[in-house]
Amino acid sequence: MKEFIQTLKNIWSLKELREKILFTLGIILVYRFASYISLPAINLAEVGDLLEHYKNQGGNKQGAGLLGLLSSFTGGAFSHASVMALGIMPYISASIIVQLMGMAIPYLQKLQKDGESGRNTLNQITRWLTIGVCLVQAPSYLTSITQLFLPYAQFQSAYFQEPNSIMFWLPSIVILVAGSVFAMWLGEKITDKGIGNGISILIMVGILSRLPEAFVQEMAVQNGKGGMGSIMILIEVLFWMLVVLLAVILSVAVRKIPIQYVSRAQARGGVNRNLMQGARQWIPLKVNAAGVMPIIFAQALMFVPGLLTKFDESNTFLAGFKNVFSWQYNVLFALLIIIFSFFYTAITIPVNQMADDLKRNGGLVPKVRPGKETADYLDDILSKITLPGAIFLSIFAVLPAIVHGSFVQTDAFALFFGGTSLLIMVGVILDTVQQINTYLLNHHYDGLMQSKLSRTTGY
Questions:
Q1: What is the pTM assigned to this prediction?
Q2: What topology does CATH give the domain 1-194?
Q3: Which of 238-250 are b and which e, b meaning 16 or more Cβ less than 10 Å from the residue's Cβ?
Q4: 28: pLDDT confidence band, cut at 50, 70 and 90?
Q5: CATH domain 212-264+278-444 topology
């Protein structure tokens, strides 16, 4: 504990690092404040009653899929009709679209290889595409909140403007688009002048903002059961810490591929004779190279099975797909995650390019010929480590459904035991700690995470 306090003092003593942290905290406060500003056409005082009524009608389980994910990413702004309701998600969607289109469009491929100027152009394309995504999502969001609550006559006072009028739609769409662009700008400012990846930090803050409320609700339910409530809360917290530890391991786990570099003079004299004189390095292939993207892709598709219930509403099997805690939903969810893990890893890890770069720079994998054989070798290793990574990722994704009911009582707290939220929190915190460590080590201070794990993985 004494060493940790000394590390905090070291962080505060570095002026540049201190200013970056304070700037980041200031931007976070602005973002959180803006998330509580409601749309001008919405009566914020009535929104809480609307949401509570919807939950009592069973909407908490039906809306806990993709919509619940969006709400958690925005810190509740999505479900509270805030000016920041769309949050940073349109920018994330635009970034994914640009990344996927980069595989098929030669112009985008060229920009990816043009260095700083190419990245700047790609960023501009992503920003404009973000506005386009907002123009699609904003009307959809307004449609959802009007169709959801209009049937309840007792809640019509929630709208200052007639929900079907142009004075409701046009200003609300403009404000929602502006709010999302403002969130994107705040994230970029954190990246430029703060600490960590700004976009990721805003998402993490939105997720963490709902944790205290979820924990208080869980405590209230457990304490209402009698004397065992406090013990169960303690067990839940310990188990949650274990889950977080496993998520950290999944995030940093790598398979190291040894690489041997030899100089051109050594290569001319014979690689075999001088092999051991070269510099040995490693290619770290992550076990979970796809990150949380397979979960996001899978959740985006999970609304489709729920739509099938409209064709046969009496079918109890199909009805299970509307509940994120049902076994039907989670079995299909896990299978989709495994499929998308292989898909996203295949399109984002360029093994052929890695093999060409190695060959061009005089590097080789021991006992493997440079070129195509090296690419095939890396692809084979990547496929083997992706399978256990995808399985563990799917387990994390369905863990909330496993612990819900039998172990954790409330829906909100159960969702923190896995899935996208937990993995994003772990990944962002590790990335931010790594950047802080870099500043400390550059000034000859000990980092926040001095362990064998941090020395071997860089975290």
A1: 0.77
A2: Preprotein translocase SecY subunit (1.10.3370)
A3: eebeebbebbbeb
A4: very high
A5: Preprotein translocase SecY subunit (1.10.3370)
